[in-house]
Amino acid sequence: METPAPFVIDRSALGGQGWYWILPRVAIALFVLALIALLWQMHRQDLEEQRATLISDILWVEQDLRFQLSRSAEQLAHLGQEFLGGDLPARRFELAVKALVANTPGLVEVLVVDASGQARAAAPAPDIRPFGATEGRGIGQTDAFRLARNAGRSMYGPPYVAAEGKHHFDIYVPLYLDGQFAGAVIGIYALPTLIAQQVPWWFAERYRVVVVDDSGNVLASKSNVEAGTEGMRYQVPFEPPGQGLLLQAIAYRSTTGLWRNTLALTIVGLALAVLVSLWLQRRQMLRRLAAESALSNEHAFRKAMEDSLLTGMRARDLEGRVVYVNPAFCRMVGWSSEELIGLKPPMPYWAPEEYEATLAVHQQVLAGKAPAQGVEVRLQRRNGERFDALIYEAPLIDADGRHTGWMGSVLDITERKRAEELARQQQEKLQFTSRLVTMGEMASTLAHELNQPLSAIASYTTGCLNLLEQGEINPPALREALQKSAHQAQRAGRIIRRVHEFVKKRESRLAACAINDVIEDAQGLIEADARKRGVRVTLVLGEYLPELLVDRVMIEQVLLNLMRNGMDAMAQTSPTERELIVSSDLEGEGVRVSVADHGPGIAPEVAAHLYEPFFTTKSEGMGMGLNICRSIVEFHQGRLWHEPREAGGTVFHLTLGAGTQ
Ligand code: ADP
Fold first, then answer.
1. Which of 34, 169, 598, 638: disulfide with 649, CB 3.0–4.6 Å?
2. Which of 563, 595, 616 gets mutated to test ligand 1 (max ligand atoms within 8 A of its CB)?
3. pLDDT (tens digit per residue) in 530-550
4. How far apart are the CA of 637 and the centre of ligand 1, in A?
5. Does this chain's domain 17-281 share its CATH topology with 309-412?
6. Ligand 1 pocket, 513 CB below 6 A?
7. Residue extents of the structural domains in the chain
8. Where would I find the H helices in 10-128?
9. From CA 446, how far away is CA 157, in angstroms rounded?
10. Which residue puts its alpha carbon closest to atom 8 of ligand 1?
11. In whole angstroms, what is the distance from residue 570 CA to residue 564 CA?
12. Which CATH class is domain 415-507?
């Protein structure tokens, strides 16, 4: 299986040096700069425009005032001329002045003085107040009067505070009768009223109009806007009336400017937000790249680890479908991962003859009952070769803690088993050989040892017979010969017993032990052999059995012998029936152990010799097994016997400890 190239990360991109990181930043910076420049330019232009408008507006107002004043000066001159010329009686003069005052913005009073400055008429107020002559001088002495008389044209007097606190100013218009200076007509204007009435409303909406004197004192003003931020201002000399008066227009900050500023601020703010979000996105991307890199490193590490494994790994989902196999597993079975993934039972690597057993194991695993110590299964490779596998199953839990399937690690134990089997066979051969040797030795010893007493018995017997044939009935001689013969027979018996002892090989060592433990040990020893022969060994162990004082090894030997005989007997039994049941139960105060097989049973002629030494029906049999077993059991004051099973086969029983505890 080829290893994918590890995922490589461009570190320069991570470091922020890549052009694709710089470009958007530069573009956004340029964009913001261009925007600021544009807004600045618009602002400048706006200011210019505002200034131009302001200037033209104030000039227009100033011109309008001048026009208004000069027109009313003409009207005053005409009125005064008519009055002094006598064309206008005093009553008519008053009416004419009233009409003029009503129609002339700011005009509050009209006086007519003669050439010496004496008042001749005043309207609309009947009393003649010393208007511009506040310093105690008569009207005739005022600078403006004199200037008007001398220059022969209208002159304006300086502003002054009138009775109501308002600032007033006067116009002196010289009058001539027949080419001679005859006096003057004086128009008195209230400056605040003039401004209030003459400056149009729309102008006052946009500007505050102020009249200031040369010291900066405000003499009159007009504004339709409450209080607000004042911006640009412009002033022009207020002439007429002159006298150092200035006409100022102060612009209010336009809302369009405010709107534009808000817009500009919004744009700059949005640009900043874009920058910040770009930065955040970059940080996020860096984190993701770092996480991806860590993940791919982890992945590569795991992959390398997995590929180096010799143990096969195979994951299945909850329905038993293969979802993952590692290279070791593919090598083991010979199918590729592409061929295996997605398959459901029966798997191609299941050996057909083991199908039922493998399916049973499979179902056991899916039911969550996989044995913790692993389970042995015989599988097949793609080329048909069989192999033994030891499988450990563990639940597959995903990141959310959900159980998604099963992960199995598969060990190919064929070699191990072969080695074990070889060792077992060698051991068996060795045992067999040693038993043969022992038997040979025993036979020759027996022959040798028994030769003497037997030949002695033979000669004594021959002697006795000779005596009888000769007709010599000599009881003492006969008794002696027979006694000697009996003695030799006893000696032969002792020899036989010694051989018997020898066959038992070892001294017994009694110790308290639980019979169930002994049975389990014996099962453990025979397990490999049983598997090889396809025999199922089932234990049915009784509970609360008393402890027994026995030679554990000897009893184990008895059980092994009985179990091996049972397995031998089932050689022709069908594989599904090959079951050996070893059970234990209470028997009196002791225990009864039974070994039951499904063999052909024991024919009566065989049964008659079963426990005899050297009786065997097997080609390689020794015929000593059951004989020794019975000796051992009897040594323990127990009993060994057999009986046919109802279901077919034989059951061997042995009792231990009954009455000995
Ligand atoms: P061997 O080593 O020859 O098996 P044994 O004393 O163990 O000697 O057994 C003697 C004979 O008894 C065997 O050859 C066999 O014919 C018979 N035998 C023993 N156990 C069984 C059994 N469970 N079923 C049938 N026959 C048996």
1. 598
2. 616
3. 988 999 999 999 999 999 998
4. 23
5. yes
6. no
7. 17-281, 309-412, 415-507, 509-661
8. 11-14, 19-84, 90-103
9. 175
10. 623
11. 10
12. mainly alpha
